[in-house]
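Final paragraph of the annual report: two paired records, presented back to back.
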Amino acid sequence: MTDVPSPAAGGRRIELTLRALVLGCLLAVIFTAANTYLGLQVGLTFASAIPAAVISMAVLRALRGSTIWENMTVQTVASVGGAMSSIIFVLPGLVMVGWWLEFPFWESVMICILGGVLGVTFSIPLRRALVVNGGLPYPEGVAAAEVLKVGSPGAEQTEEAVRENRSGLWVVIWGAIVSAAYALGAAARAFAGEATRFVSLPASLGGGATGVGVGMQFALLGAGHLIGLAVGLAQLFGLALAWLIAVPILTSPDTIAWLTANGIPSIATTLEPGVGAEELAGTVWAREVRFMGAGVIGIAAIWTLIKLAGPLIGGVTSALAANRRRSAGETLDITEQDIPITRVALLSLLSLGGIGVLLAVVANGMGLGTAAPLLVIGGLIYVVVIGFAVAAICGYMAGLIGSSNSPVSGVGILAIVIASLLMLVVLGITGLPADPNVVAFALIVTAIVFAVAVIANDNLQDLKTGQLVAATPWRQQTALIVGVVAGALVIPFVLNQLNAAFGFEGGPAGIADEPLAAPQATLISALARGVIAGDLRWDLIGIGAAIGAVIIVLDEVLRATTKNKVKLPPLAVGIGFYLPAAVTFMLVIGAVCGFIYNRMVSGRAYGEVAKRMGVLLASGLIVGESLFGVFNAATIVGTGNAEWAAVLGLADTWPAMTVGIAVFAVLTVLLYGWIINRSAKV
């Protein structure tokens, strides 16, 4: 591990500077836009810390006096700004339920900022519990620290380190160019961007239906590379449970007949007789199997919270003890100086006051009348209690498997179910009808909690990077707040462009009438409506919870018997249930490609450099396709033409799918071969 300059070195410490904040905000805008598109398209976001660090080092190298800590500030602002985009796992639900037709700027921004600042303040006492004393690997935080140590101008650098930094920047750039170019080719209808196949099963296999698909998207390949083999295979396991077991069983004529005879609802009975395999399997998966996935994710999130009880108490106790030592005049080491707990409390109270005002305005605008005070008070209590709990869950999982893989989706699902159940209590007390206004209020409260979760999820990863490069925690925490604001200001604009161009599942159609899947928002809004209306399929969620319990036991047994060498992360299995098959399958391919690539280079002299280049390539692939998606949406809105790029107009036939697969495979091999050659020359 490369050493960093001592914090005690003479001279002024260059860390939290104006130029670092400005550059960080600019990068935050880019990564927020990219992550917003990626999250709505495929239900995943990526950690932008490493590409942000590489870009920062390349830019600040041209300026005199820059240091590793200043690069750390840039990376922190950019990373948290990109993480803020995960709020799109909830906000589109307000369009889906009909409360919003578009995303009002100030309401959307305040949900993000107020929840995000709470995410920062809640993560401060967790730093000691989960970062300093938690013993967690923080894979992305450690990787980002290594990148900073190797390439920062303020570190003792070799010529090799300088070459690696320059080469890494070009890897990000060319990865983005190739990814965007392939997405443009798919938009031009030069080849198909997805290959799917649905089949009716023979009577010997139950006579139901199922399907398989693969999305040729470099953003997914890059995301798969980053999540790693263990999580990828767990998602494959969830995919197999969904499409090889659950869907065939629920579409089997014998199962449908049995459910009908016993008065158990089945979505398959509402379809026309003789419906095709694609509609049958797709509808059953969307309306029934995904709720099983929700049950898996929910029980996994609860299990995580139980495991976290001890570290949580220890973190709060440690933070209070540090504040007492500081108050008594003890000088803490610079690497242990958080924002004082009294200021943390003040920031939290100011945020909660803003949330109270926001909820009051929303409740009055909904015409909830005398119930408004009860809703506002209950909402604030909910944000504090559930918000801190989900901050801890996400922070722990970020440390365990990385920010990109931590359970923000599962937390959102759990949060909306709890919020909706509490809304039922309010309805019983006040006599309000269970109309869409109530559903919308539950979604807004959940969106605030979700903002807390996603920021805490990213913050603790960044704080781990800061610990490893001897950054000052209070300065880093200040940069985190700046990043929250930068990301929040971008999100409504991007969401409105995507909504107008494509629309979302279950909401008004966009110009292209090709609604974005927004899988988490679709599921969360459906859960809210189902709980409040009283028609939620608790039986399916219960089945999923039972499956999740079995997976938890299996995961614990595997970890114990193999000394953590073999794992089956329950949350990843749940994600495999409810993400579209084409998305999950490409994520698995990306995870396998990343594993093979790392194994290929691990025994070589330049192996560690090549592994870092692989991470940068994956990040570039994600950024390129995602930014093209945002550009595509803006062009559709500007021209009013959904097919502006479709100059070739080839249909989604098997020949077009075959060409798409071939081009994708060739480009993948060439890209991995190219970065191996670049790594060897560093």
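The closing record of the year follows.
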Amino acid sequence: MKRRRWTSAALVVAMAASLLSACSGNSASAPDSTSPDGKKGEVPNLEKSGMPIVKQPVSLTFFTGKAATNGNNFEETTVWKEYAKLSNVNVKFQLVPFDNLTEKRNLALAGGDYPDAFYSSRVPASDLMKYGAQGTFVKLNDLIDKYAPNFKKLMDKYPDLKKGLTMPDGYIYSFPSFYSPEFLPMLIGTPLWVKQEWLDKLKLKEPATTEELYQYLKAVKETDLNGNGQADEIPYAGEGINPLIEQIRGAWGFGNRGLGHKFVDVDPKTNELRFFRTDAKYKEVIEYVRKLYTEGLIDKEIFTVKTSALFAKGQKGVFGATINPNPMTQMNQPGYVGLGALKGPYGDQLYTHVKVPVVWPGAFVITDKNKNVEATIRWIDHFYGDEGATFYFMGLEGQTYRKTSDGKLEFVEDITKNPNGLTMDQALAKHITWLGGSYPGFVQEKYFKGSETLPESVAVGKKAEPFKVKELWNNFNFTEEETEFRSTVGTDMHNYIGEMEAKFITGSQPMSEWDKYVATVQKMGVDEYMKGYKKAYERYKNTK
């Protein structure tokens, strides 16, 4: 999850975390433990419930992803210092910046120089399968039943959670970052925003169709809406072209299983899987975006602009429309309204810009070097209950947060209005470590009060709700053979499609070349690609 920028004192943040695995009838890989009296199944030194987790202190080492907003010593933060006292488990976090996390993680795994667990380390599904099969990662299926009651409740409540975590061999090797399926504003994440003040000046209603969006953007370009005598208004600006395509393609009925599947969905006519990016009707999606771009309704820097430069432009108040978590928190620009599902030229109206609930499947992974597997599972499971989640995201009541008269949680003014001029993130960094995202956890609305729970974001969720994807798929998990094909032929295909769509949109490639382009993609291996996808889908669908 991308790092959030926050509003000032009025912003209340409360997030819920839970570390996940799954329950199944499969056997666990942790070695059997035998108590001093010879009775199997009881782990010496482990408390069955409550705190502390162990009778005598134990030490663990975690390979840990670090965001730029985090401090340099996790052990000294309020949450981890207090949790060590509470649990009797002392964790040393080996911090690795996210910028070179993948390289360092791959080297550690390949060389065998890895610690007890990978925490917030973004282990991909392909590695979960690979190193799980080799025995490097611990199989968690049966261990969940015994040692993770909070997570087990989540698995029972959300059966699709298990589908997203189960590898092709039937085992679960990780605890993910998991967004509550009921928390639609969080799953939307980055709505398409338009400027209400400019709609009012133009005497236009909020766009409800793709044609109305076009007319609004065109009017922004042709009108001096900020009254400075310059043509500096930018109808639409964002970081890259894909977010815009992903926002509008539901108006043609594409992407109907959510953002986890950017090339494949289900054909509503046949109920079969389809590779929709080369569909004849999908050509119209690209033509629509091409029209916006060639008429100057999209920022010419859309393909190259950096985040910081985009925000700097946005802070000038010149964007008629944009896509991000919230213009207020990202660009200090109030007055934007988020759009719901736009209706397309054939009457399609589907909100498909919905992320998978299992955001980071490999957010927490226990390795075969861990001599305290059961204690480690209890350690992480605590954060899936209300008490542990509140503690993880909010810190200590009275020190970092307080409860309002209506029972809500909010950070203290030392954090929201820091007397030393620190930003909210900077003030929080000495207390918590979830800034920067990809942490193992369960995020639900009753705890989380960030950008996605501001009134404008909640309003987007309400607009999108009637038209949201009816069957939202988590990512599928592929066998090593399927992964090899996808990482070679599949990657080449994905890259070629992205490059060609950009050329069609900018006009450097005429639309008359579309059929030739489709034929090239087909020759690259679509049939084999879809065979693997169908196999993965069948496994996903049949996971119990």
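Residues 514-542 form the longest helix (29 residues). This concludes the annual technical report; the extension proposal builds directly on these records.
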